[in-house]
Amino acid sequence: MSASNKKQAIDHQEIISRYMNYVLEHDGYPKSVYKFCKASKIKEEDFYSFFGSLESLNKGIWNAFFTTTLDAMNKNKEYGGFSSRDKMLTLFYTLFELLNLNRSYVLFSLQAHKVPFKNLEQLKGLRKHIKGFASELIEQDNDEKLYKITKNPVSIFSEGAWLQFLFLLKFWVDDESPGFEKTDVAIEKSVNTIFDLFDNTPLNNVLDFGKFLWKEKWMWN
Q1: I need a surface site. Which of 6, 100, 179, 221 has the fewest CB within 10 A?
Q2: CB count, 10 Å around CB of 167?
Q3: Residue 20, Cα to own-chain centre: how many angstroms?
Q4: Between residues 73 and 211, which one has the greater pLDDT?
Q5: Please, what sign has the CA dihedral across residues 84, 85, 86, 88?
Q6: Distance (Å) of CA 83 to CA 78, 113, 208
Q7: CB of 187 closer than 8 Å to CB of 92
Q8: Is the pTM here over 0.85, yes or no?
Q9: What is the mean pLDDT of the segment spanning 45-74?
Q10: What is the largest distance, in Å, between two alpha-carbon atoms of the chain?
């Protein structure tokens, strides 16, 4: 038996997995890297080779959610031929399916601190990823347009995509429907509404989306 088979190598995914398990089993974050590593049987040097602190690990989990989502999307041979609208739909559907699989940890991490903004600090890296994804979509669409006046502002679109994710995340946290099917409906309606706004055909879809939010008694606060 080779040496590589005797002992499983510790990588960032394994550290993330053990960390999430630690948080759920202890109903709280570890007090230090030392205590986490000792409880999880990880060498500190192995931890620090991937993460500089527990805070960076918290952010790294959300980054891993995004990269895992992209990997899953790109395995679909048909994905490359999707429209920008369908690519955004695929991103949100796939990302929230992954969040479903890790719902216990995600809910804890989003509600760990009494101050809401403190809970959102871990999403900084994810914000950059989602805005970058949206920017790339709108830039590709703009390249196909002949006139500058018909091109859409990249910064507004990308920021809108991030705000849209935050809305969907809050909706998903509160969703008690079987299989979180109402979140799927919210994803479809919100993405279609945003793209219709940029396509200058918004009225019916905006009203439809507004009725949906009213029906679900959505509260931003």
Answers
A1: 221
A2: 15
A3: 16
A4: 73
A5: positive
A6: 11, 39, 22
A7: yes
A8: no
A9: 96
A10: 67
